[in-house]
């Protein structure tokens, strides 16, 4: 099969990765993402405003024809979207430009994963990443602002591993004086499990999480804490544009990652687009505005015209928020909330 020219943005970054948010709703109220004081009275999108599965699949096919090789489903909490496995099944039929299988992944808080894991795997999902910010009951409830137990999430992780949704990754957002004492317990728990544990610097996504630089525990500090108990060695990136710096425990018992968007920005390799629940396309996690694809899609625009819109959007893209954070934070307008755009 002939290989189409690589679509590149204004900074010569190739388009490879698409994140699709399938719902703006969530069953947790994590303070860094959906703080209860903001979202308990929030007006969520009506059903008619949300892209249907048919619309998502059609747009996904266009993105794949433009060079996307990986799609990740997110939210909100994607497992709240009814019959999500049917969407997975249809997306799994897509093929990349070179004829290879599309990589299909999903990020979840894990609360509903135990019940959904087998159906997702049988539908064609390749991998799952689970957000788990604390292992203790108290820490989990503080970080999720919910009555759920971390045991429920751990059950979901075990079930996902058992059905072959792997390699599994577990993400932990670390906030100073909130859950920093959970770093080593999480690592001790997941050693020898085959799960890749990733620690994420607390980021200023959206506008309602009251982010402060002093609340960030840097990747370097996280590595120092781990290294004091478990010697580490660096690993090469698994693929171009990987956001996580990879490390292995010297004893071979675990791989960990650190996502250092604040202290060590990686905008230069970013190859992602984000399709929000209502069909708006965003070129950056920290974006303030997006390109509406739902209106032309529902107006009957043909695939070629939609593809031209998307290609133009990517080719004009020059986002470098994390590398220019000190300047960008002073720009007017409110950043899109992570629960709407997907992580």
Automatic annotation (TrEMBL):
Give the required cofactors.
[4Fe-4S] cluster
Q: In which pathway does it act?
A: Cofactor biosynthesis; molybdopterin biosynthesis
Q: Which reaction does it catalyse?
A: GTP + AH2 + S-adenosyl-L-methionine = (8S)-3',8-cyclo-7,8-dihydroguanosine 5'-triphosphate + 5'-deoxyadenosine + L-methionine + A + H(+)
- Report the protein's function: Catalyzes the cyclization of GTP to (8S)-3',8-cyclo-7,8-dihydroguanosine 5'-triphosphate.
Domain Radical SAM core: from-to ranges: 10-233
The catalytic activity of this protein is classed by the Enzyme Commission as 4.1.99.22
Q: What sort of enzyme, by top EC class, is this?
A: lyase
Annotated HAMAP family: MoaA_B (MF_01225_B)
Record SMART domains: Elp3
Give me the residues that bind [4Fe-4S] cluster 2, please.
Answer: 267, 270, 284
Record note on cofactor: Binds 2 [4Fe-4S] clusters. Binds 1 [4Fe-4S] cluster coordinated with 3 cysteines and an exchangeable S-adenosyl-L-methionine and 1 [4Fe-4S] cluster coordinated with 3 cysteines and the GTP-derived substrate.
Where do the annotations place [4Fe-4S] cluster 1 binding?
A: 26, 30, 33
Positions annotated to bind GTP:
19, 72, 107, 169, 272-274
PROSITE patterns in the record: MOAA_NIFB_PQQE, RADICAL_SAM
Species per Swiss-Prot/TrEMBL record: Candidatus Dactylopiibacterium carminicum
The Swiss-Prot or TrEMBL record annotates one GO molecular function as: GTP binding
Top-level taxon of origin: Bacteria
Q: Which family does it belong to?
A: Belongs to the radical SAM superfamily. MoaA family.
- Please report the name of this protein according to its UniProt entry: GTP 3',8-cyclase
Q: Where does S-adenosyl-L-methionine bind?
A: 32, 76, 131, 203
Name the InterPro entries for this protein.
Aldolase_TIM (IPR013785), Elp3/MiaA/NifB-like_rSAM (IPR006638), MoaA (IPR013483), MoaA-like (IPR040064), MoaA_NifB_PqqE_Fe-S-bd_CS (IPR000385), MoaA_twitch (IPR010505), MoCo_biosynth_MoaA/MoaC (IPR050105), rSAM (IPR007197)
Keyword list, A-Z: 4Fe-4S, GTP-binding, Iron, Iron-sulfur, Lyase, Metal-binding, Molybdenum cofactor biosynthesis, Nucleotide-binding, S-adenosyl-L-methionine
Q: How does it assemble?
A: Monomer and homodimer.
- Entries under PANTHER family matching the protein: MOLYBDENUM COFACTOR BIOSYNTHESIS PROTEIN 1, MOLYBDOPTERIN COFACTOR SYNTHESIS PROTEIN A
Biological processes per GO annotation:
Mo-molybdopterin cofactor biosynthetic process
